[in-house]
Design goal:
alpha+beta; 4 helices; 7 strands
Length: about 200
């Protein structure tokens, strides 16, 4: 489609800027920020996240611990493979919709200790710190960041520019994940539940 055809159809003409590789790369970096691009964080460091390997609606058959570099910035927790990671690993965790608490199991999940849990209606994250003090520090930081996020949203506190950029990226990636689950995961789970009902009826 040439520019004249686009104009006749009422579409905005394409410009050289829209084809600018640097502009495109900058836009992608804002959506998928590197660890360094997040700037001054509230807290960051290596933690282990409990990862269950499941087959959709089937029972989980394997669990592992993933070592990730966690960065608490603005309203989200971002995870990277290393402190110099170029793209986040997984979906950023929105702290405002999460509650955080210590894991009272003294043995820890799968042999790990110093665990804490981030819980929401949608999902739970089990995370292991390196010590009891580190776990406490993360819990305090997450609770404080959540409180600040609520006050910023209500207009009671100003929001830093770097936090606004991180929140924009986190919100975009989180919404993308919700859309993916709505179109792909939820129908599959519903089909699995329907199959279970049919089997129960048959038996």
């Amino acid at each position: 489609m040439d520019l004249r055809q686009r104009r006749t159809e009422g579409l905005e003409p394409l410009t050289d800027e829209r084809y600018d590789a640097e502009a495109l790369e900058k836009a992608m970096d804002e959506i998928h920020p590197s660890a360094a691009a997040l700037g001054n964080s509230t807290m960051e460091g290596f933690l282990h996240k409990y990862q269950e390997q499941c087959g959709g609606c089937f029972p989980c058959f394997k669990a592992t611990w993933q070592r990730r570099y966690f960065i608490l910035k603005g309203q989200f927790i971002f995870r990277y493979a290393t402190p110099s990671g170029k793209r986040p690993k997984g979906t950023p965790i929105p702290i405002e919709s999460m509650s955080v608490s210590e894991d009272n199991d003294t043995i820890g999940h799968d042999g790990r200790r110093y665990c804490f849990v981030l819980s929401s209606i949608r999902k739970d994250f089990i995370i292991s710190a390196g010590s009891a003090d580190e776990r406490s520090a993360w819990i305090r930081a997450i609770r404080a960041a959540k409180e600040r996020s609520i006050k910023e949203r209500m207009g009671h506190l100003p929001m830093a520019a770097s936090d606004r950029t991180a929140n924009k990226a986190g919100s975009y990636l989180f919404k993308q994940q919700l859309e993916f689950e709505r179109h792909h995961v939820m129908p599959f789970e519903a089909e699995g539940r329907l199959g279970q009902v049919e089997m129960a009826s048959f038996n």
